[in-house]
Amino acid sequence: MKVTVVGAGNVGATCADVLAYREIANEVVLVDIKEGFAEGKALDIWQKSPINLYDTRTTGVTNDYSKTANSDVVVITSGLPRKPGMTRDDLISTNAGIVKSVTENIVKYSPEAIIIVVSNPLDVMTYCAHITSKMPRTKVMGMAGILDTARYRAFLAEELNVSPKDIQAVLMGGHGDTMVPLPRYTTVGGIPVTEMIAEDKLNAIVERTKNGGGELVKLMGTSAWYAPGSAAAQMVEAIVRDQKRVFPVCIKLEGEYGITGTYLGVPVVLGKNGVEKVIELQLNEDEMALLKASEKAVREVMDVLDNMPVNA
Ligand SMILES: NC(=O)c1ccc[n+]([C@@H]2O[C@H](COP(=O)([O-])OP(=O)(O)OC[C@H]3O[C@@H](n4cnc5c(N)ncnc54)[C@H](O)[C@@H]3O)[C@@H](O)[C@H]2O)c1
Ligand SMILES: O=C(O)C[C@H](O)C(=O)O
């Protein structure tokens, strides 16, 4: 299996490292626009192989997409991260052009690849990659839900003093402050979370989750990479190993949840064909209202993309 990761910065290099040391792919190609940057990161990861004992071949290239030919999966992380005071949506003007040109190059050399978008604003960059690629929706998806759910699970594990392995949860909607964690679908070793934690504490964790990306931007001056890179690698693993994992993934909705044409995080089954099934939960009235509000927020940014020169 050959996997290309575009953008050898914080998230891209972390994703490539996880793909290599967990031997998720036989070959990982890192691509960056900065001269020598991807080559250096790939060489560093390769030099770690005798220490961490893996044989995944990692190589890096500066903008030479011919070396990415026939990739099975491509992860797009190229683009600016936000700085303190910015929203993810503020990145659209720079990142739309980057994601569009990267997708064109990817499709030229790997027309069969499954594409995982990571660049922000996530839902709209997934839209951008999907319309550029002209591929079926099942093969162009965005990574955010695994990360957001992981934050929610980690906060709960800390509060309850239990292993994060035992927290299961679903989170839906856009990758922004309107995301929708779902306490009704959250369990701790099979026990409904509401039986384990007071309502005010749970509400505080839901709010912290929604602002989880911003919390890290404030602390570090740039955005997160360990959890995002690992989350993207987990999606790659589900695809290349045909694991049929159930994850929240951003995809174009075509009637599910009564929504058509908007790119939103929903639970799906992920396997060798990409998104093999969109799972439709029986949301109650309050949950559906939150999902619709999230849809509205994503729609507004999709409209911005539609009116940008990059799409003319
Ligand atoms: N979806 C998520 O949950 C999530 C999580 C974290 C970060 N992100 C987003 O991922 C993106 C990358 O974040 P980061 O922290 O790795 O940033 P970074 O600045 O460390 O890395 C980005 C890399 O992209 C490269 N790049 C820029 N234009 C390119 C092009 N045309 N072709 C190839 N490479 C190009 C840059 O040279 C840089 O090395 C940001 O947009 C960030 O907001 C998303
Ligand atoms: O917060 C960001 O800007 C990056 C990413 O979307 C995240 O949630 O960590």
Automatic annotation (TrEMBL):
Q: Does the keyword Oxidoreductase apply?
A: yes
The entry lists its GO molecular-function terms as: L-lactate dehydrogenase (NAD+) activity; L-malate dehydrogenase (NAD+) activity
Name the active site residues.
175 (proton acceptor)
- Annotated substrate binding lies at 82, 88, 120, 151
Q: Catalysed reaction(s)?
A: (S)-malate + NAD(+) = oxaloacetate + NADH + H(+)
Name the top EC class: oxidoreductase
Query: Which parts of the sequence belong to the Lactate/malate dehydrogenase C-terminal domain?
Result: 147-303
Query: What EC number(s) does this enzyme carry?
Result: 1.1.1.37
Residue ranges of domain Lactate/malate dehydrogenase N-terminal in the record:
1-142
What are the binding positions for NAD(+) in this chain?
Answer: 7-12, 32, 95, 118-120
- Give the highest taxon in the source lineage: Bacteria
What keywords are annotated for this sequence in UniProt? Answer: NAD, Oxidoreductase, Tricarboxylic acid cycle
One Pfam family per UniProt: Ldh_1_C
> Which GO biological process annotations does it have?
lactate metabolic process; tricarboxylic acid cycle
Q: Which residues form a coiled coil?
A: none
Report the function annotation for this chain: Catalyzes the reversible oxidation of malate to oxaloacetate.
Instruction: Give the similarity note.
Output: Belongs to the LDH/MDH superfamily. MDH type 3 family.
Q: What is this protein called?
A: Malate dehydrogenase
Q: Which organism is it from?
A: Adhaeribacter soli
Query: What gene is it encoded by?
Result: mdh
